[in-house]
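Fill in residues.
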């Protein structure tokens, strides 16, 4: 499979257009279905060699057609196969009807399926195109399979998972594994779909890569291929100011740790010089813990204005443990007016909850130079309408927010989405669950700041930060603290 396609994420609508383009180009649509069904059968035999019976549940569309092909292949391999159909198989049309006819075996109604010990369920009821709640009969079967703790192999996506949003439509199978074709869909990567799809196999059924160019959108999986070329390489001529000067605003004396985590992460992630900007009352607390990070007093916008006179100070991180909403707004306005770059996190985001448009207007022109790093609650403070729209996927919320704010948005979570104002979006998948720990977000903000100050475009800077953050968590292992995470960041020029 072409490398670009391997990281591509397609909406169900885009995949449908590509399927139609493949058929229009002269490819046999039934040939594609045959390869898909054979791949499902091969996965079933490989993954479940001890199965006493394969219960193949076939739906009324092309996903059901894949199921009939798989059932025929399983039976030819000598497996015990029971096929149950949703709806009347005689009503099938097109390739699905051809697949049913080629199966030529008994097909019982779905309502007659009785789960029994030793069954492996091959779920070919609905694919990624499902956009409505499953029928009651399907929900009943899903519950019976769950009650008997039977393994499920899903075809394309577990039935009941919305392929566009990853949400459960009434009820859904929890699959041990899923076989999908050509590319993953948002439902494979967005929660809860990601958790319910199990291990996902992507099988190349033979659609040419050229057909994806005109029909695919701008969604990808976040891998180093998406941003490695934008990361500056270190050379013998580099010095600390070439690598960039990053400044991180500290909170008051009782809340300085978050800023120090961001600062140390920025230094470890590749910034040449990092300074903590501290209120006078917090200087002693910060000075007691800082060695390789510099320290400056900033108590008001006039103090900040003096620092902004140094053109080498390129990038700021504001928000971790900051606390003072009024001061945050004043500092952001000065940074924006000076044309500098900013990572706005945590309290910095919340500072604009009463007037988000005020923030967006500050960074509305030129190349994006603002990175927002909200979790769902912070996102709702800036974008309440998007957060409250149940029809939008997490990807769509992030894309719309990025366009509105003219900023790169890192919408955090176990399924973090990075979105650019131009519509590009990446979904991250390398983050382990133990990254959900105190200070983890502060570290992410510092990494993103380091990338910005080294000159990376905002989208690539954010995407690289999210990936390195996840990789650092994986290397640190379960039970990590934020300090462990910093100590396990790969050097920026050691990414393979």
């Amino acid at each position: 499979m072409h490398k670009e396609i391997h990281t591509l994420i397609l909406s169900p609508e885009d995949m449908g257009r590509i399927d139609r383009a493949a058929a229009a180009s002269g490819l046999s649509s039934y040939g594609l279905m045959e390869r898909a069904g054979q791949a499902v059968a091969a996965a079933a035999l490989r993954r479940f060699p001890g199965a006493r019976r394969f219960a193949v549940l076939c739906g009324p569309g092309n996903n059901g057609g894949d199921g009939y092909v798989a059932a025929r292949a399983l039976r030819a391999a000598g497996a015990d196969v029971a096929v149950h159909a949703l709806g009347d198989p005689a009503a099938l049309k097109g390739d699905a009807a051809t697949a049913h006819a080629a199966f030529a075996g008994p097909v019982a109604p779905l309502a007659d399926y009785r789960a029994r010990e030793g069954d492996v369920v091959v779920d070919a009821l609905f694919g990624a195109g499902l956009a409505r709640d499953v029928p009651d009969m399907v929900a009943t079967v899903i519950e019976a399979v769950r009650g008997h703790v039977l393994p499920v192999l899903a075809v394309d996506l577990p039935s009941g998972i919305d392929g566009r949003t990853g949400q459960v439509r009434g009820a859904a199978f929890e699959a041990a594994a899923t076989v999908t074709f050509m590319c993953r869909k948002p439902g494979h990567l967005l929660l809860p779909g990601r958790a319910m799809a199990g291990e996902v196999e992507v099988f190349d059924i033979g659609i040419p890569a050229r057909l994806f160019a005109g029909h695919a959108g701008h969604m990808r999986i976040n891998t180093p291929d998406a941003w490695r070329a934008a990361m500056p390489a270190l050379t013998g001529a580099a010095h600390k100011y070439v690598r960039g000067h990053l400044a991180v605003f500290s909170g008051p004396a009782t809340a300085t740790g978050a800023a120090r985590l961001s600062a140390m992460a920025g230094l470890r992630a590749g910034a040449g010089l990092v300074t903590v900007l501290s209120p006078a009352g917090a200087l002693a607390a910060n000075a007691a813990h800082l060695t390789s990070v510099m320290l400056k007093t900033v108590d008001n916008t006039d103090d900040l204005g003096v620092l902004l006179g140094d053109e080498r100070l390129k990038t700021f991180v504001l928000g971790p443990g900051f606390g003072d909403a009024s001061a945050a707004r004043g500092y952001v306005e000065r940074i924006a007016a000076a044309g500098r770059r900013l990572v706005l996190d945590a309290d910095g985001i919340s500072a604009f909850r009463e007037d988000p448009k005020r923030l967006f207007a500050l960074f509305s022109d030129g190349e994006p130079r603002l990175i927002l790093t909200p979790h769902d609650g912070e996102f709702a403070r800036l974008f309440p309408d998007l957060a409250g729209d149940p029809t939008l996927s997490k990807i769509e919320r992030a894309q719309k927010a990025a366009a509105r704010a003219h900023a790169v948005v890192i919408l955090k979570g176990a399924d973090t989405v990075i979105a650019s104002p131009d519509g590009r979006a990446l979904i991250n998948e390398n983050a382990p669950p133990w990254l959900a720990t105190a200070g983890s977000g502060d570290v992410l903000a510092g990494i993103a700041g380091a990338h910005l100050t080294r000159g990376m475009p905002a989208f690539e800077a954010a995407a690289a930060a999210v990936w390195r953050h996840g990789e650092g968590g994986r290397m640190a292992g379960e039970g990590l603290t934020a300090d462990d995470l910093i100590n396990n960041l790969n050097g920026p020029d050691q990414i393979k």
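The first helix runs from residue 3 to 7.
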